[in-house]
Structures are given as C-alpha cells and as structure tokens.
Design brief:
The protein is α/β, with parallel strands linked by helices. It has helices spanning 9-18, 25-35, 49-58, 119-123, 131-147, 167-179, 196-203, 220-226, 235-249, 267-277, 302-314, 336-346; strands at 2-3, 59-60, 65-71, 77-82, 88-95, 101-104, 108-110, 125-128, 154-157, 188-192, 210-214, 253-259, 282-288, 318-321. The chain contains 12 helices and 14 strands. It binds S-adenosyl-L-homocysteine (SAH) and iron/sulfur cluster. Iron/sulfur cluster is lined by residues 111, 113-115, 118, 120-121, 161-162, 193, 214, 335.
C-alpha cells in the first residue's frame, strides 16, 4: 500500500502512470487531496472508475489509525492515533469563537528531554515521527473541517515530543502545511524546550513561523532540576539564541511559563525573569501547571499569577494568562491538555 500523502506532485504523476492512467490525472488527484481534501477515493468524481478502483486496491489516504477520541464541552477535541508500528500519539483540535481552528500536533512518539513535570517526558522517548506523520495529523483535521464547510486555520507543534529534536522532519512538515494545506507561516507555531543550535538554525530559515520557548525558570540551577536540557544549554545561551531569532525574523519570541505553586510564582522569580527578558522582543504566556502523575508540583494561584504579571510589566515585559481549554478531557492524556491551553495563548 502506498500512502498518497507521502508523494510529491512529481511522484504522484509517476504513480498515476504506473497505474496505467494518463499523467494529467495527477493534477486532478492532487486537487482532491489538498484542495478539496476528501477522505475517500469514491468522492473523486472526475477520475475514471478504473483508476479509482486501482487506487482503492493499492493506495491509502493516510496511515493514522484513530483509536480514541475525547470531546470537551468547550469544543476541544483530543485524539489518540496508532501508527503503523503500534506507537501512540496525540493530536488536539481547538475551535475558537473568532473562527480560528487550531490543531495541536505531535512531533515524536514520547520525548527524550525528560522535563520532570511533563507526562510525555515521563514516558521517555520511542521514536521520531516522519514528516508525513506530522503533516497528516493536521491533514486529518483539515479534511474533516472541510467536509463541514469549515477550515483549519492554525497549527501548533506542541503535542508530544520535542520538534527541534526531530528538526528536518518537523521543518518538512511545516513547509507542507504552508504549501499543501495553505496555512500561513504566521499561523504556525513551533514550541521548543530550548535546543540552542536548532533555534539559531531555525532563525536562518527565512520563515515567518512563530517560535515558542519553554522557559519555566529564570535560574540555571533550578531550571536544570526541572528541565535537564538546561545542563547542556544554559539560560543565557538560550536567551542569546532567542535574541538572534528576533533579530533575524523581526518576530517576537513567546516564552512559556508553566506556573507552579511556590516553585516559580514568587515575586523574586518575577523580578529575575523581568531582568532576564527586559528589552527582548518577546511575550510571556503563563499557564498554571497541569498536574501529572509523576510530579508533585501544583498549579499556582491566580492571585499570585496576577502579581507575577504586574512585576513583569514593570520591566516592560508583556505577559498574559488565559483560561484553560479542554479542561474536562484529561483522561489518559500526555501533556496535550496543557498544550491545548498554551496554544490558546499563542495563536
Ligand atoms: N517539547 C516542546 C513542545 C511540546 S510540550 C516543548 O517542551 O516546548 C508543549 C508545552 O507544554 C511546553 O511549554 C511544555 O513545557 C508544556 N508542559 C508540559 N507538561 C506540562 C504540564 N504538566 N503543565 C503545564 N505545561 C506543561
Ligand atoms: Fe519533551 Fe516538551 Fe515534555 Fe519537555 S515539555 S519532556 S521537551 S515534550
């Protein structure tokens, strides 16, 4: 079986010829795949039946196997897909009142970064996703929205895994989101734990794709305890790379801050963060920690968060906190539930 989403236009043309049809059919087929976004071959009305039958026998429209789905009262939809080798990954769709439809997608099965508060980090690393596996998660939502006369408008790489630990596949998938699904670069966000060389490389790509950086702590020793990656690239190296990104792209960086009671919600921490970020083109998104089984931390109080934001404002650092999305669909989730909230703030 061939997954048609794996094929470039030229490859699709060759494939159509291989199936015994004319090359120009590839254009029609491509249109059904990426413009009309149908989910079955029978819907491809202008293709001859012989070709449709051959496609049904030899090809698939994607390989993600939906094994579970949860719908939240606020419209958020969370999915669990099984990949061809049995790996499980999550994707989330978040509809907004202003008509945005945001997909939160995974870049790896598991994650090697080991952040102690993160459900995916607690699972460990299984493997990288292919570019098509990443792309297809968004495609699935796009396809279903299209069938309802709706459109996928935004994508965030905030599901399972560290996108920059799977850099090439992530960038290929992001380019396909732009080229094949027509999603504007400014409507795509990559969230990273802080892999410094990749942030610099990303800055040089010449893309307008948004960057979010998971900071969570303004002190090296404490950040290293929460996020082992900090032992490899410390906060100053990370901020320098972020500054480089802002200079190259003229875009602000979003810093993600999972507010943890008594851990990073204090006035002292806010001052430290304010000093660190003062003068940098950035925004801080604060979201109370989503408790996970493997970590004892609790979410910070809203009153504390309010004070925290006020202090940051003294340094002319913008910060916001927003309501959670998909709060009622926590069962069996990695940290996607939290990513859902965070994505809400970024888009
Ligand atoms: N690996 C990337 C992207 C996936 S994680 C990264 O770390 O940025 C998406 C976001 O969810 C990150 O900001 C991460 O720090 C945050 N996150 C993970 N677990 C969380 C939890 N239990 N509560 C709040 N935020 C969490
Ligand atoms: Fe990996 Fe991101 Fe979770 Fe850290 S927060 S373990 S980088 S998915």
């Amino acid at each position: 079986m061939i997954n048609l989403y794996e094929l470039s236009f030229d490859e699709l043309s060759d494939y159509v010829v291989q199936l015994g049809d004319k090359k120009f059919r590839a254009k029609q087929l491509w249109n059904w795949l990426y413009n009309r976004r149908v989910d079955n071959f029978d819907a491809m009305q202008n293709l001859p039946n012989t070709l449709i039958e051959k496609l049904k026998e030899n090809a698939t429209l994607g390989t993600l196997n939906l094994v579970a789905q949860e719908n939240s009262g606020d419209g958020t939809e969370k999915r669990l897909y099984r990949l061809h080798d049995g790996q499980l990954i999550e994707s989330v769709l978040m509809p907004y009142e202003d008509d945005r439809r945001t997909a939160c997608i995974s870049s790896q099965a598991g994650c090697a970064m080991g952040c102690v508060f993160c459900a995916t980090g607690q699972m460990g690393y299984s493997r990288n996703l292919t570019a098509t596996e990443i792309f297809e998660q968004a495609m699935r939502f796009a396809r279903e929205l299209e069938a309802d006369g709706d459109r996928l408008s935004n994508v965030v790489l905030m599901g399972m895994g560290e996108p920059f630990h799977n850099y090439d596949a992530t960038l290929t998938a992001v380019r396909r989101l732009m080229d094949d699904l027509g999603i504007g670069a400014r409507h795509i966000t990559i969230s990273t734990v802080g892999l410094v060389p990749q942030i610099r490389r990303f800055a040089d790509e010449g893309l307008q794709v948004r960057l979010a950086v998971s900071l969570h702590k303004a002190d090296d020793t404490e950040r290293s305890a929460l996020m082992p990656v900090n032992k490899r690239w410390n906060i100053q190296e990370l901020i320098d790379a972020c500054r480089y990104y802002t200079e190259q792209t003229n875009r602000r960086v979003t810093f993600e801050w999972a507010a943890i009671a008594d851990e990073n919600d204090t006035p002292a921490e806010a001052h430290k963060l304010g000093r660190l970020l003062a003068g940098l083109l950035c925004h801080v998104n604060i979201i109370p920690l989503n408790p996970t089984g493997g970590y004892s931390g609790m979410p910070a109080d809203s009153s504390k968060i309010e004070k925290f934001i006020n202090i940051l404002n003294h340094y002319n650092v913008n910060a916001t906190v927003r309501v959670r999305r998909g709060i009622d669909i926590s069962a069996g989730c990695g940290q996607l539930k939290t990513a859902v909230i965070r994505a809400d703030e970024i888009n």
